[in-house]
Amino acid sequence: MVKLEENFRLGKQSMVEKLKQILLFFIPDQCHDTYLLEHHFTDVPCFKALVSKLLGFAIIAGSLLVKVPQIMKIIKSKSAEGVSFIAVLLDLIAITSHMAYSYVNGYPFSSWGDTSFLAFQTLVIAELILYYQCYPILSYVFSMAYGGFAYTLCSGKTPLHVLTTMQSLNIPILLAGKLSQAYTIYQNRCVGQLSAVTVFLLLGGSLARIFTSIQETGDSIMIITFCSSTFANALIAFQVVCFWNQKRARDSEQTYTSAHSAAAVKGGTKCD
Q: Residue 249's pLDDT is what?
């Protein structure tokens, strides 16, 4: 009986220690004593840091699937109509630059880890656009070129000042990419194969990243970048709401002359 009680006590201590180890993973270093020794759970700075840490990991978890709806929609329809390749390319460059900048600077994984998953999914979307535009070989070449680009940035061979410059350029790159997508939607008057789920998840993620960047890095460049991204994502989300019910207009041989058809090809796909 005594041995059973002793085993129970040791098991309980072991569970407590494991729980503490799990908590230490989420609690910022400066708050270990505040929470675990002093039990001061109402400390405002530590609470904000804890919320930021949890929010950061929640964003990372969400990033695992955030662009999957977009990928599946393109595959299902066998078309990337309405999805701007330029916007995807610029988005991929910005995401990769941000990932490399944060990794080399040694920022907490919770503040940038989602970019690694976003980069992979964005690469897949770029490949699909090229593939369904009848450039299958180019899609493979693009993948290999991107792999070399990402490795060069993250391997430590790229000087930090270059990464800092690239991170600063992320602001106009992000805006140019998102505004390119916004222009495509406006020109077509419909969202095409653009996934509304992905658009709104990206908006929520960029908005949350403003808070986590302030709390975990204090990097003004990153904060401004996410503010710009939130603005652009909000614009696209607004367009999705406005043009969601618009259907793609089918060209009719009876109502369009060859001159009108040529103009449609030049101007892009039109929607009702």
A: 44
Residue 96: per-residue pLDDT: 94
Main-chain phi, psi angles of 80, to 5 degrees: -110, 25
Show the tokens assigned to 1. 């009986």
Report the domain count for the chain. 1
Residue 222: which domain range?
163-256
pLDDT in tens, 214-227: 888 888 988 999 99
Is the sign of the CA dihedral 87, 88, 92, 95 positive or negative? positive
CA dist., res. 7 & res. 154, Å (int): 48
Buried b (16+ CB within 10 A) or exposed e, 69-89: ebbebbeeeebbbbbbeebbb
Region at 159 (left for phi over 0; alpha for psi -120 to 50; beta for the rest): beta
Distance CA 178, CA 89 (A): 10
- Distances 77 to 84, 129, 242 between C-alpha atoms, Å: 16, 12, 22
Whether 197 maps to a domain, the answer reads yes
156 located within any domain:
no
> Which pair of structure tokens corresponds to residue 17?
């220690």
Contact 244, 191 (CB under 8 A): yes
- Could you tell me if residue 198 is inside a domain? yes
Backbone phi, psi, residue 28, to 5°: -60, 150
Tokens 């009876």: give the residue. Answer: 254
Residue reference for tokens 């600077």: 105
Strand partners, 248: 271
The answer to whether residue 138 sits within a structural domain is no
On the CB side of 184, CA atoms within 13 Å amount to: 20
Contact 91, 153 (CB under 8 A): no
CATH code at position 188: 1.20.1280.290
Task: Convert the pLDDT of each residue in 102-159 to its tens digit.
Answer: 999 988 888 888 999 999 999 999 999 999 987 889 999 999 999 999 999 998 889 9
